[in-house]
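Holo prediction — protoporphyrin IX containing FE.
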Amino acid sequence: SLKEKKLNKLAKEIGLIDKPMMPILGHAYLFLSTRKEIMKLFEFLAEESSRHRGLIGFWNINRLLVNITDPEATEFLLKTCLSKDHGLLRGPLMFTGNGSIFAPVNIWRPRRKILAPTFSMKNLNMFVNVFADQTAVMGNQLAPKAGAGDFSVFKYVANYTFDAVCETALGIQIQSQIKQNSFVNAIDEIFRMTGDRMNSFTARHDFMYRMMPCFKQYDKQRQLLYRFVNEIIQIKREEAAKPAECAGTLHGFKKSKVPSFLEMIMEHSGSIGGYTDLELREETMVIILAGTDTSAVGTSFALVMMSRYEEVQKKVYEELKGVFGDSNRTITAADLPSLKYLEAVIKETLRLYPPVPVIVREVDRDVTLPSGVTLVKDVTAFINILGIHRNREYWGDDADDFRPERFLEGPLKHPNQFIPFSNGVRNCLGYQYAMMSMKTALSSVLRRYSILPPDGMDPEQLKKPLRLEYDVSIKHVDKFIIRIEKRNS
Ligand code: HEM
């Protein structure tokens, strides 16, 4: 057909990855692999495309995917193509429904208009109080680990981000840092099962997945979460109608002192003829889902990097001393802009280890890139953030080195060479929220503890790139293991 001819012509023009193709599957078999192998594949795609002027093709069954590591092409595509490839995103979609993150463009557009103003600087500054309180809890939870040898820091950080995101999204204190609850377990299970599903060929289609034995467990956890959020919404609706009768608790949880996204979205969408319960649930779940694991991964990688780069940690600590002196006062929103070096450390961590390593866009009409290459309708743009972040043409020969100072040396060559939060009109709405939360968490930990690498780690090993695996976001194969010690002051 004409469509096939156009796709084949494009594949020839940009070149295909140097891996054998299988009948029917094309290159799709490469993705049906372990989490480590999939990560290696992303890294392989990154290198291959950087050697082919930033574009390289591969076949996922009958779909041509174009892997992109060129910031120019990326900028253009993030401006012109807003639809996400639903074939690749069926797993997460089954959970988020029409929530803005993966919704079709016509549903996403009005929802984004309602959600965006809730991320105002005024609201974010208010949320820093939540971050500060919740990171204080994290600091206490870490205390038994001080001087007690190697441990994985991830769960501590993930429980912090979960508590903070839930408090700001739903207005309740879940306290996952202090006690187990079924809501947290359900989120963990859904994440794990969504990751498994993305690597499985047989689970590609919803109707197949629904017939698989694991679906029962998946659906049970999903319904548990939906019910939980629905109940919170009901109570909030009743409260909005009769504010005088508000109690200090909600559904057995302590209420937050700050207004939540849920209340704000309810208000912004108009109380009469506003969002339905389903829309409210979808949008609050998107915030919880998009905000928890991503910022936990970013924060944990930053801690691992500081454990291995003693001189970087020292500079961060000096900066903290400059701002806080010897006092142990709580951090406030006004302190955050002063923490410039810490910000550079977070950015350099997100450059080398972007929590979301790849995003996709559906090319829904023929579009000509600034380079002159025309991507034809029905191609999927596979925007390889990890590859863009290591592109030597933009970052120089030390692209693979961890060097936070590069973010303090004046503007970057191209605004799209650093896009951990994506860019353009469909970028991450939570990027400032995330930066503020990560800064608060890292300053809290660093003020109380010094961070060390695993016991007996070979100094040669310290500066080696971390081993990664793909699990919806990227993770550390060696489980974010560090040691901590209490600081003297
Ligand atoms: C280090 C932490 C984070 C990273 C790396 C990250 C990254 C991303 C990326 C790559 C996207 C997809 C954008 C695209 O396809 O172009 C996204 C979307 C989104 N993120 Fe984040 N994110 C982080 C934290 C957060 C937080 C804390 C929140 C909320 C509190 C949040 C809310 C959202 C929302 C609502 C979207 C969907 C936007 C839309 O489609 O209009 N994110 N994020």
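READOUT: The mean pLDDT is 94.
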